Amino acid sequence: MMNHFLTEDTFRKGLSTYLDAFKYGNAEQDDLWEHLTQAAHQDGTLPLDLTVKTIMDTWTLQMGYPVITVERSPDGTSASVSQERFLLVKEGDFKSSEEYKWWVPLTYTGGDDSNFNETRAKVWMKDTETLITIQSLPTKDHWVIFNLQETGYYRVNYDNHNWNLLIQQLLTDHTVIATINRAQIIDDAMNLARADQVAYDTALEVYNYLGQETEYVPWATAINNLAYLKDMFSRTGGYGALKNYLLDILVPLYNMLGFIDSQSDPLLDQYKRQKALTWACELEHQDCLQNAAAIYAHWMNNPDNSSIISPNLKSTVYCHAISVGGEKEWNFAWNKYLKSNVGSEKIRLLSAMGCTKQVWILSRYLEIAFSPDSGIRKQDAFRVFGAVAANEVGRPLAWTFLQDQWDTIFEFYGKAKSRLIKSATSSFNSVQQLKELRLFRREHLQDLESVSRSVQQVIERTKINIAWMTSNYQVIVNWLHKNGYSTKLSNA
């Protein structure tokens, strides 16, 4: 952020004098701020009455970061801009968080004459200011975007009209908006929706353009933000509609990239393929599952040929071939795990074996993992448990196993392990699951004393998930129905 509001040349100049001055001595944070300030004042990139320390202390000495809210006037040419601390959940100490303010470098551009390359602050919002007014914006028919190239460490919210203008621009010609800012719009919309500051209708409308998106950064951002939504929906009647919607968005990218990975492909294409294939298979896209199974079968027929599966795709192929396979595919992976002496390969195989949909194999896998002479290292039993818990079929098995075998697990490690509890309960979102969690804590109160804070955090997370489901599940189902993805069955 500093190299943008100071400019790259000024930042390098200040850093150079700082390193030269302290090359043989000790330095403190304020020494760096002083040298950057001197360079900025010499170059005129900061006003003489403003120092880097004044700015950066608001970022380094207090928790969190802000969300900037932009409310444009009816004609669009001015906007009220406010700041507050961004919190996914407002509870507990929220009132004290209202006192948090930052020096915020505001950068922005408009749809009438967009320029995403000017990342030096146009306006500074002071830490004493809750609300400011910005003038000379484009008229109401043109969008504005703040935080150009996402060079500032803050989120941005807009009024409904500006959100709609951005959505229309993405649908019409998304390339008009810089790649990083497209990712920013997706990330801000989804996180603001989760924080109940933007309607999920708006956040999901942002996703509608993704069928045209080809760049890695927006796609990676979009996929990362879907994980929570998928977890919350995975055991509900609305999951099928959500899955079909996500597949319609994702399949064009999947088709464009294909399943065959080549080391000669540009690096970002390899990253995109890895993301696209992982999610396409996760959403049970048949072509993806068939390809994974076919490549894995080819490897089973040629077990000594380690080059059959691209290194980038091994995790995806292993997991989803095992998920649609049976005992034969699982046992092949197990034998490969026992024979391998490559750490990264053993980890991939351990995780992949948790992907099977065969309940009895998952149960056996959990039992093996916590046995002293299984061939699985004690520290890797965590990974096995996490892999089973991440599997929609294995999730309830992992929780049941943790409850039924708690004494065995406790003896196995010699103490309580909060990581196991977190893995088993990460997607808990019902009142019944909350009751089970509280009962588990009461029954093992003494054992859990050393991790009581972590257990309380798990309970609080479950309560947050329940509240999210109450507020958002039906809203999202209604939006899906309105857009042609119904959860209702035909009576014909």
UniProtKB/TrEMBL annotation:
Pfam families: ERAP1_C (PF11838), Peptidase_M1 (PF01433). Its EC number is 3.4.11.2. It is an enzyme of class 3 (hydrolase). Belongs to the peptidase M1 family. Its cofactor is Zn(2+). The keyword Transcription does not apply. It comes from the Eukaryota. One of its GO terms (molecular function) is zinc ion binding. Its main location: membrane. Gene3D superfamilies: 1.25.50.20, 2.60.40.1910, Neutral Protease Domain 2. It catalyses: Release of an N-terminal amino acid, Xaa-|-Yaa- from a peptide, amide or arylamide. Xaa is preferably Ala, but may be most amino acids including Pro (slow action). When a terminal hydrophobic residue is followed by a prolyl residue, the two may be released as an intact Xaa-Pro dipeptide. GO terms for cellular component: cytoplasm; extracellular space; plasma membrane; side of membrane. This is Aminopeptidase N. It is found in: Cell membrane. It is a lipid-anchor; GPI-anchor. The keyword Cytoplasm does not apply.
